[in-house]
Amino acid sequence: MDTPIHIRMKIAQSLILGVLALSLTVGCSGSGDKSKSGEKENESGGLFSSGSKNEAQEIIDFNNKMVQTENNQNSFIRNYIRSVDNLDNFIKKKIANPDAIAIAPILIRPIMVNQSKDLKAPSSLKGNYAAWIDSLQTSFASLQSLYKEMENYKSAEDWKEDQGKKMNEFKEKGMAEIQKNENASKALFNALRPEADKAEAEILKDHPFKDQIISSKKVMEYCKEITMGTYDDVSNQTFKANFDKQYNELESLLKKNKENPIKGDQYESNNRRFNTFNDAVDTYLGKMRIIQREMNAGSEISEGAFTDLDNAAQTVVSTYNNFVN
After folding, report:
1. CB 8: neighbour CB atoms within 10 A?
2. pTM: predicted TM-score of the whole model, two decimal places
3. How high is the pLDDT of residue 27?
4. What is the predicted pLDDT for the residue at 16?
5. pLDDT at 110 over 90
6. How far is residue 186's CA from residue 175's CA, in Å, rounded to a whole number?
7. Quick one: which of 65, 27, 26, 34 has its CA closest to 320?
């Protein structure tokens, strides 16, 4: 049986849920310059004074803090997995042939931004949020400690003493902590997402560019769906047919999104962020065309083409978050 030309390489080396960043939920802060629009803030800083709006905003603020934390942690996790693989390959090469020319990998920890320490769910949310947050934070702290230990192991060249055996510990302990982190994340967001969606619907009732947010979210979610679909194990023919159909659908969605700009001088900066998001989707479509050309040529799709699509999808989510935040 032929290997499907779309199968992702090294898929076992990372957790599928960590491939793409999570998206933020729109809140009151995403509605432009309030001083210019003539709308009044309440004491808590939101646009609305009713209890339902305040409660909705609290849920959205918590959701967005958790999304930022999750995205930061996933970035670190991807880097940890990549660093373990690179260092392990280097050590094995040097042990097999000490005279071989091999450059030791540079281990660089990502800069952690928006890493909230004070994460507490609003009282209106029902669920075991405190335990989930604790599990997220403790597993991540353990992973950071392992990374620091691995840096010291490499720097001191201790692998020459144990023939690289400690790398198995970095792999096994690391993946155990990553699994704990993923389990807590899945449980938390499975409970939080429906509540955040309801809160977003409440906020959007009076939002000045509700239509652009809804349509942009649809575009962004479709980009994520397409990207995650590249990890599916299906036949060449099925993958190609789906991918071509998805390209046409995304192109149509983007066209409609561009035809409805945000109007009003007070929302000029919001419209710029909206356009930046649309530009990112344009770039994503370009990466899709590269994959289409490789498929049409009958060759195996390069891992570089898939990686570029992943990166373009990350940018789509990032620019969407910047638009609605």
Report:
1. 18
2. 0.77
3. 64
4. 42
5. no
6. 16
7. 26
